[in-house]
Write a structure and sequence with these properties.
Elements lengths: L8 H13 L1 E3 L7 E12 L15 H13 L5 H5 L7 H11 L5 H10 L1 H7 L6 H7 E2 L5 E2 L1 H11 L7 E3 L15 E9 L2 E12 L3 H19 L3 E15 L3 H9 L7 E4 L14 E4 L14
Parallel strand pairs: 7-8
Antiparallel strand pairs: 1-2, 2-8, 3-4, 5-6, 6-7, 9-10
Helix pairs in contact: 2-7, 2-9, 5-6
């Protein structure tokens, strides 16, 4: 009997190809990767389908909170930590340890972020990362530009336009960012009442980052579609430096040994007045039955 095709299979095929054919490279973190340059994946988002990997559990509620944090324009980890989200803590924690010499653990660091306003301002800020660029991109004349608001307005007023872009790659600010944007450019296309999008990712950690990146890109597209009275179309993902870390062999082996399960459906249960009004509980994922999570270290 021929196996039916599964939309997660292209992701697994790419993971296998990077691991078996990728060039071994020493990277910024010192951990080392196997990497390929240039990959494309396509996902049909119609009918509520969402690219949420099932070969390992993806903590999609954390991803929702991260995306809403981006959309808020925030660049400090404090609102994330207050919601139990730890995915951005490693970068300011590493800076604090390096600059003070204090061997503080993550829990103690986060507790100080929550308890001490001055400490949070000094050590919790990540610099002008995604939220700043999306909502308050500063031009040469000093004026700030809200790219997200402009994107929604453009999609509504001129759906056939070719300038529906959102970018985080502000060259003037890169040196002040804790981490330059990996998922750096989004572009959108409207045809026959459907909204499709492309995410260009300059750097993609397939093992840890990609499952979050592709889910959040799909969620953002769904939110834009709802705000602009459109149906979701296709999400195209384009990865440049696509890599797996050398210390993630156990993760790769587990992913490739597990059969993918049916993808879930995503619902937005409320339409807020604007795209900045979504709350975490507005996002519902139905029918998600993944394999267990796979723990792997983050390279900072």
């Amino acid at each position: 009997m021929t196996k039916s095709w599964h939309p997660e299979q292209p992701i697994l095929d790419l993971i296998r190809r990077v691991w078996t054919e990728g060039v071994e490279r020493r990277d910024r973190t010192g951990v080392g990767t196997r990497a390929l340059f240039g990959a494309t994946l396509r996902f049909d988002l119609s009918g509520g389908t969402v690219p949420l990997m099932t070969t390992k559990r993806v903590y999609w509620k954390t991803a929702v909170k991260e995306l809403l944090w981006f959309l808020s324009g925030e660049t400090n980890i404090r609102p994330l930590v207050a919601q139990g989200v730890h995915i951005w803590t490693d970068w300011p924690l590493a800076r604090y340890r390096a600059e003070t010499g204090e061997a503080i653990d993550r829990d103690a660091f986060e507790a100080r972020i929550l308890a001490d306003d001055d400490f949070a301002r000094a050590w919790g800020d990540l610099g002008p990362v995604y939220g700043r660029q999306w909502r308050r991109w500063q031009g040469a004349d000093g004026r700030e530009h809200d790219q997200v608001a402009a994107l929604v307005d453009g999609l509504r007023r001129n759906p056939a336009g070719r300038r529906h872009l959102l970018s985080g790659w502000n060259v003037a600010d890169l040196d002040r960012m804790a981490l330059p944007p990996c998922h750096m450019t989004y572009q959108y296309f409207v045809a026959e009442g459907r909204l499709s999008g492309i995410l260009y990712q300059r750097s993609c950690d397939l093992g840890l980052g990609f499952p979050f990146n592709i889910f959040e890109a799909a969620l953002l597209l769904r939110m834009l579609a709802q705000q602009c009275d459109l149906e979701p179309g296709e999400l195209v993902w384009m990865g440049a430096d696509v890599h797996l870390y050398l210390n993630h062999a156990h993760l790769v082996d587990a992913l490739l040994a597990r059969p993918p399960r049916p993808w879930p459906k995503l619902r937005l249960v409320r339409r807020p007045p604007d795209i900045f009004g979504y709350r975490p509980d507005d996002v519902v994922v139905d029918g998600y039955d993944p394999h267990p999570a796979i723990l792997a270290p983050v390279a900072v």
